[in-house]
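Hi both,

Apologies for the delay on this - the queue was longer than expected. I finally got the fe (ii) ion-bound model through. Below you'll find the protein sequence and the ligand SMILES exactly as submitted, and right after that the structure tokens for the full complex including the ligand.
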Amino acid sequence: MYHSDDFRQTKEDNFQLHISREKDFKILQLTDLHMGFGWLSKKQDELALAAVKKLVRRTKPDLIVLTGDSVFPFWPKAGTRDNGKQAKKLMAFLDGFQIPYTLVFGNHDCEMGSACDKEQLGRLFKKGAYCIFTEGKKDLSGVGNFVIELVDDAGKVLLPLVMLDSNMYGEGGWFFSGFDCIHEDQTDWCMERLTAYRQMDPGIRAMAFFHMPLREFKDAYERMKLGDKSVVYEHGSISEKNEYFGISKRPGSFFDRAVENGVIKWMFCGHDHLNTLSLTYKGIRMTYGMSIDYLGYAGIKKSYTQRGGTLITRKADGTVTVRMVPLDAVVSKRVRGNGTPEKNKAIC
Ligand SMILES: [Fe+2]
Ligand SMILES: [Fe+2]
């Protein structure tokens, strides 16, 4: 576990990280690394690690957040099912930056037949020298539901970062049975925590990080395409085939509850490697992180316009910016978009 005078675990599901009010605080969201670390994935792993290194060096973040599918224990592609070994290798690599990092699980980290389940993998990640992770409350769905509070020197919470396990698969329990979502008990837990923050500070705003996109992200995209001006285009595009969103078939109430609760203003996900869209809907900015994957999708090694990270900056004055950090300098307008809702029609 990360160790610093500025950092402590205060509860089973809560951390505090002290930050300076005078300086910007930079979070680099990386998603879908799909590290194989097996005999079939050597080339792709080298490329993925080089990409991460480049992005970290370029952005110099204060915190790195991995939004799932960090490891990929899928034998036909990686040549191993040992996600424990994969996690250890990934941690050794990330610890080398000497920058704290945290993570949520995706649907692939504990793929069927993998050596470790989520509890075991979570215990391993807790051993990372710079890793911030806890399983969270045992009676909640998923593993790794917790909050990292960014606090000032006086102990005032400036920005809670809510980490959520969006679980894995729906009925049937495997890839082709569709994806799961954030469950009701996790939603209750999250909203209770947020309400408590709001009671202390009515102006507080929070961020949520999880792997699978919410169905409302797709709804908002569809509305935007139909010209609904209440949806604000921010950046990026939907580049998955047939404008695919890997959403759950289950309804899930997380988005509606977050809107009603009013504290979460930013949501970050991954999962759909080619989607980089960011938009604001009902007061919440939803963002697909740029992804790293060289191994998961067939042929993705050659595709580059989606590859990169997402830099989230909490400025000293409390404002927040979110921007794409493409790995390659040249990214087509189709991916980057034009930056205004009006011009966005060109990318639909
Ligand atoms: Fe993925
Ligand atoms: Fe995924």
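Main takeaway for now: The chain has eight helices and 15 strands.

I'll put the files on the shared drive as well.

H.
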